[in-house]
Specification:
By secondary structure, the protein is of the alpha/beta class. It contains 15 helices and 15 strands. The chain folds into two domains: about 240 residues, Aspartate Aminotransferase, domain 2 (3-Layer(aba) Sandwich); about 130 residues, Alpha-Beta Complex (Aspartate Aminotransferase, domain 1), CATH 3.90.1150.10. About 45% of the residues lie in helices and about 10% in strands. The chain has a seven-stranded mixed β-sheet, sandwiched between helices.
């Protein structure tokens, strides 16, 4: 055996051991993180291929390095598959994350305004209302593009987007860019109405569908393509690899599309990650299959049923339900009377993995929160159905209302491990 083969045979046992530990953690816990999913082996395979070492700045057919004939084909295939999935005329697959995809669009739009010495104005959903850091939050670099980002909110009474309020804010503010889409909004977004609001303001509409990519391409959620200029998302929440994409909406001009290409390189990114692009291409092909569509339907069905089960058990579910994969719960006003952080920690100790989350008009700090956010992506891809959602709802209630003694926690952990044995990870790990 050559020394090279010996090296591979005994590759970094410390790291390999930790990877195996993570696999075991996944198999023995119930994964309900709304921003996570589980990835098929076929999608993971390109990530450990020779593509990881290829450097090539630029776009297919116009690179700043040689030897790009193969990676040009890979990137072109990935772009074509996204365009077909969204029924869009142009896609960009190089962004390394959904956040970077947003920054690229911002840069593409702000350049001409800055050259003329004009202020660039952004109107977006507030972070504390269910929006995202990269939508111009003062905590994030995206706010540097605009010194006066304005936010719209959800209704205090219903937790739903108030489109009349958004229209009124837009008329008074005259934004250059309206950003829609959220990280903790459990209801369907009316992209058609938002498109009308943007048109009235003479603004570009950017739809960030990071959380609902799968629902959009499967026809379960309204598509933003006919109503927007650009659509962005991360690819991993729907079951792809880490990364982001940008897709042109029907309202994007040729000049705006050229500006996005320039903003990718030399604007924001340097060499792309071709291993990730190849993995994205495999995922994009998966995302137009009947199996994928059926899974998306089950994701929503499970979320709706889990939401109703939790409400029956006295939990305060924001908006009284869900239209997507997200169930957002105000645990502070539920029977358990816990903060989001306390609820999150209790559940994790027992093997149920969610995340603490702020709720609209929250009085708690972001690292505490009054809520928890639950998602049904991973459990649905593993084959769980509404009967399993009832088990999970019972488990959540028992844990959040339990005494958390050592005996209680040990028993709950055992129940979770036994429950997870019913579901196969074959094809995912």
């Amino acid at each position: 055996m050559s020394s090279m083969n010996q090296h591979h045979e005994h590759f970094d046992e410390e790291i390999v051991g930790l990877i195996e530990k993570e696999k075991q953690r996944r198999k023995e816990t119930i994964q309900l993180i709304a921003a996570e999913n589980i990835v098929r082996s076929e999608v993971m395979r390109p990530l450990s291929s020779i593509l990881v070492s290829k450097t090539a700045e630029g776009v297919p057919g116009n690179r700043y390095h040689s030897g790009c004939s193969v990676v040009d084909e890979i990137e072109t295939i990935a772009e074509r598959r996204v365009e077909e999935a969204f029924k869009a005329r142009k896609a960009w697959v190089q962004p390394l994350s959904g956040t970077l995809a947003n920054l690229i669009v911002y840069l593409s739009l702000v350049r001409s305004k800055k050259k003329r010495g004009e202020e660039f104005k952004i109107l977006s959903m507030g972070l504390d209302q269910g929006g995202h850091l990269s939508h111009g939050s003062s905590f994030h670099v995206s706010s540097f593009f605009c010194s006066d980002v304005r936010n719209y909110s959800v209704s205090r009474e219903t937790g739903l987007l108030d489109y009349d309020m958004i229209r009124n804010i837009s008329r008074g503010y005259s934004p250059d860019l309206i950003v829609c889409g959220g990280s903790a909004y459990p209801r369907e977004i009316d992209f058609a109405t938002l498109g009308e609001i943007a048109k009235d303001a003479g603004a570009v509409l950017l739809a960030d569908i990071a959380h609902i990519y799968g629902l959009v391409v499967s026809g379960i959620h309204q598509s933003p393509i006919p109503h927007s200029h650009f659509v962005t998302c991360s690819t991993y929440k729907a079951g792809g690899p880490k990364g982001g994409i940008i897709v042109s909406g029907d309202l994007a001009t040729d000049e705006q599309c050229r500006s996005v290409t320039q903003a990718i390189f030399p604007g924001v990114q340097s060499t792309p990650d071709f291993a990730s692009i190849a993995a994205k291409a495999v995922f994009f092909a998966e995302s137009v299959t009947d199996e994928f569509r059926n899974t998306q339907r089950r994701i929503v069905e499970n979320a709706k049923y889990l939401s109703s089960c939790l409400m029956e058990r006295g939990f305060d579910v924001i908006t009284g339900g869900t239209d997507n994969h997200i169930v957002l719960i105000n645990v502070k006003t539920s029977a358990c009377r816990l903060t989001g952080k306390e609820a999150n920690e209790r559940l994790e100790r027992c093997g149920v993995i969610v995340n603490k989350n702020m709720i609209p008009y929250d009085n708690e700090k972001a690292n505490v929160g009054s809520g928890i956010r639950i998602g049904t992506n991973t459990v649905s891809r593993l084959g769980m159905n509404t009967n399993d959602m009832e088990f999970i709802a019972n488990l959540i209630e028992e844990i959040l209302m339990g005494d958390m003694s050592d005996g209680f926690v040990s028993k709950a952990q055992s129940r979770v491990k036994e429950f997870m044995k019913e579901f196969s990870f074959e094809g995912f790990i």
